[in-house]
Amino acid sequence: MSEPESPDQETKDWVYRDSTKRMLMALLIIGCAVSVGLEFFITEKHPKFGIDGTFGFFALLGFICCTIMIFLAKLLGLVLKVPTNFYGDNDEEEESSS
Fold first, then answer.
1. Dist CA 76 CA 83 (whole Å)
2. Are 62 and 78 in contact (CB under 8 A)?
3. Which residue of 37, 45, 46, 92 lies most exposed, with the fewest beta carbons within 10 A?
4. In sequence order, what E strands does the chain have?
């Protein structure tokens, strides 16, 4: 087994460790490369439009859609955000009036 990188690394959850972050990034890159590379072996393409028959179209489409979903989620979070003391004000007023 390898030694922990620092004493602090041993107490962290596995998700927050630097080694886990590197491993997950490597797996993501390998997964993306494999999914795009598999297009070489797909010989029977039936494009319905002209552009969807090009190499890497669905990988690019997935990336663009995920990026748009992230920005929409950030925007929705700003719209739906409530103050931190949203529930706290009413409780304090009721307790002090009793």
1. 15
2. no
3. 46
4. none
Q: Which residue has the tokens 């663009």?
A: 64
SS3 assignment, position 9? helix
* Pick from 38, 39, 65: nearest CA to 53: 39
pTM of the complete model beyond 0.70: no
What is the rounded CA–CA span in Å between residue 95 and residue 98?
A: 5
Distance between CA 53 and CA 42 in Å, rounded?
Answer: 11
Per-position pLDDT tens, the chain of length 98: 555 555 566 677 888 889 999 999 999 999 988 888 888 887 677 888 888 888 888 888 989 999 999 999 999 999 998 888 878 765 555 555 55
d(CA 39, CA 61): 14
Length of the chain: 98
